Amino acid sequence: xxxxxxxxxxxxxxxxxxxxxxxxxxxxxxxxxxxxxxxxxxxxxxxxxxxxxxxxxxxxxxxxxxxxxxxxxxxxxxxxxxxxxxxxxxxxxxxxxxxxxxxxxxxxxxxxxxxxxxxxxxxxxxxxxxxxxxxxxxxxxx
Length: 142
Description:
Elements: H1 4-25, H2 32-59, H3 68-82, H4 88-111, H5 118-139
Helix pairs in contact: 1-2, 1-3, 1-4, 1-5, 2-5, 4-5
């Protein structure tokens, strides 16, 4: 079973990972519609991250953030995967894979969170809904 603080840390790390993934592809060549969708998703992740920090601050919690090494490695792997294949379809595929991992992590958290903390539960569900919407949005670019 996970605590509210652990769930909040997980939400924070997931939003940060999503931002790293999107920023890693934004300098690639892509159709304007895909770029606009990714920039919108980036703003949504940023908003959820800001909410997570606010909850942690209100409660005096020190929450774990995404490790700088993980950020660097993820960015490098994304750039390698895009090497010579900067297609909208490839970018959408990678985004769907990342969102799917985020959804799985979010669902596991919800199932391991017996003590429902309204603020943390609501934010966790908001992230899960965001990941689901992102997948649907990216499917149009495959």
